[in-house]
From TrEMBL:
It comes from the Bacteria. Its EC number is 2.7.7.43, 2.7.7.81. It comes from Candidatus Accumulibacter cognatus. Gene3D superfamilies: Spore Coat Polysaccharide Biosynthesis Protein SpsA, Chain A. PANTHER family: HAD SUPERFAMILY MEMBERS CMAS AND KDSC, N-ACYLNEURAMINATE CYTIDYLYLTRANSFERASE-RELATED. Keywords: Nucleotidyltransferase, Transferase. The lineage of its organism: Bacteria, Pseudomonadati, Pseudomonadota, Betaproteobacteria, Candidatus Accumulibacter. This is N-acylneuraminate cytidylyltransferase. The gene is neuA. CDD domains: CMP-NeuAc_Synthase (cd02513). One of its GO terms (molecular function) is N-acylneuraminate cytidylyltransferase activity.
Amino acid sequence: MKLAIIPARGGSKRIPRKNIKLFSGKPMIAWSIDAARASGLFDHIVVSTDDVEISAVAKAYGAEVPFMRPPALSDDYTGTSAVVAHAIQWYRAQGDMPDPVCCIYATAPFVNAADLQRGLQMLADSDSDFAFSVTSFAFPIQRAIKLTEEGRVQMFQPEHFNTRSQDLEQAFHDAGQFYWGRAAAWIADKPIFSSDAMPVILPRHRVQDIDTPEDWERAEWMFKALQTG
């Protein structure tokens, strides 16, 4: 049984009600549900939430909410793996054995069915524990600078001040969209960022972290551009 878990607790601080705030005409979470449904991969698409309103919206857009997330897993410090593991264990208690399991973030409007399909195939073709979305940094991280207490600048790696950009190793970061994983790896809380994970590489123009109102506005402009492109 293939299972999609969309974590969506109700206590968003920086953007209140972020998971169900309208994004390009639909509640934000609806885009993740739509992508999961369009992929045709999942036996169950489950939203793990502690919030009655989020639950209602999720059901209206075709997801299931077979349980409410317990308060112990609904604070600001609970990680994604614990939420996914809880869902897997809930299904096991019902006699089902979900595997593999894909965590899809509720605030990932750029996630699409083809990438989910590609991630599953990469996991299936390897002995890895995870396959998740990544994208490249737009600027060489080796030439990054920080601000000092005196208000000046300082390089993190000053030895690369004169290194040409094309001679520096390309770096990638988590795209924050989806994470395919084997049930045993989720239950064991294995680290996702490790040599036991496969990268599903996405182009930078389809990746936007959404944590602030500025992020949200930029994401909507990007989304509109993609729809008309």
